[in-house]
């Protein structure tokens, strides 16, 4: 009988201790400032916000019961400090995109400011990777754009250089033809000039002869000493 009473007493003590643990857990959940602020990089069980807190905050926002005091964005991460005038309470929110990540409520402005600065520092750390990726992606697209522009410029210059080389080749061929033609014309000019000089010399000689008043007779042909050959009589009919 005593053993049974002892077992019942131990069971009651266990139930009482369990109730105390549940009450302490509920108290910690309703007052987040009682412990250290968990890091957003911790496990999902530690950083997960109770749905009731998020729903309550969304309802307050939808009914315009909160005033935005401060908000800081770092890429898709952000933190807000909100004030509820009717209860003189503050809500400090850490969010990613359009989803609330952590929500902490306090009645102390100093504690709210401390929480807000902590969340802002966390958004800076979390958003740094996205900001670097955004910058690198933009730099890559810019480099690809500049490569395309420079390749187009290179093709244009190569086309211009090819045209210039073709034109230079044509000009060189024309120059060679002109040189050959000039050499041929020079030779023809020399020959023509020589013929002209010869004709002019003949003209000068004839003009000199015509203008000479002295009579110049040709020399007589030399006489032959042999007797002429007999002339045969014509044949008789």
Largest sheet: 4 strands, antiparallel
Structural class: alpha+beta
- Tell me the helix content: 55-70%
N-end to C-end Cα span: 208 Å
Order of helices and strands: HHHEEEEH
Core attributes:
237 residues, 4 helices, rod-shaped, disordered N terminus, 62% helix, alpha+beta, four-stranded antiparallel beta sheet
Would you mind describing this structure in some detail?
- By secondary structure, this protein is an alpha+beta fold.
- 62% of the residues lie in helices and 14% in strands.
- The chain is built from 4 helices and 4 strands.
- Strands 1-2-3-4 form a 4-stranded antiparallel beta sheet.
- It is rod-shaped, with a radius of gyration of 61 Å.
Summarize, please.
62% of the residues lie in helices and 14% in strands. The chain has 237 residues and is an alpha+beta fold.
Summarize the topology.
Elements: H1 2-30, H2 44-47, H3 51-62, E1 66-74, E2 77-84, E3 89-96, E4 99-106, H4 109-210
């Amino acid at each position: 009988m005593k053993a049974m009473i002892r077992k019942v007493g131990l069971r009651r003590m266990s139930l009482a201790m369990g109730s105390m643990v549940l009450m302490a857990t509920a108290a910690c959940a309703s007052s987040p400032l009682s412990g250290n602020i968990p890091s957003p990089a911790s496990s999902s069980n530690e950083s997960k916000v109770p749905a009731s807190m998020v729903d309550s905050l969304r309802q307050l926002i939808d009914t315009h019961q909160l005033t935005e005091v401060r908000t800081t964005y770092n890429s898709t991460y952000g933190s807000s400090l909100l004030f509820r005038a009717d209860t003189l309470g503050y809500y400090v929110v850490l969010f990613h995109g359009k989803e609330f990540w952590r929500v902490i409520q306090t009645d102390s402005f100093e504690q709210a400011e401390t929480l807000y600065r902590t969340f802002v520092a966390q958004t800076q750390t979390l958003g740094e990777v996205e900001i670097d990726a955004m910058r690198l992606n933009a730099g890559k697209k810019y480099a690809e754009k500049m490569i395309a522009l420079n390749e187009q410029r290179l093709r244009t210059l190569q086309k211009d250089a090819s045209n210039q080389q073709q034109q230079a080749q044509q000009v060189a061929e024309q120059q060679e033809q002109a040189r050959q033609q000039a050499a041929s014309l020079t030779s023809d000019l020399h020959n023509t000039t020589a013929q002209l000089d010869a004709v002019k010399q003949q003209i000068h000689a004839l003009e000199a002869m015509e203008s000479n008043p002295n009579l110049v007779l040709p020399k007589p042909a030399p006489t032959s000493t042999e007797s002429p050959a007999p002339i045969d009589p014509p044949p008789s009919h």
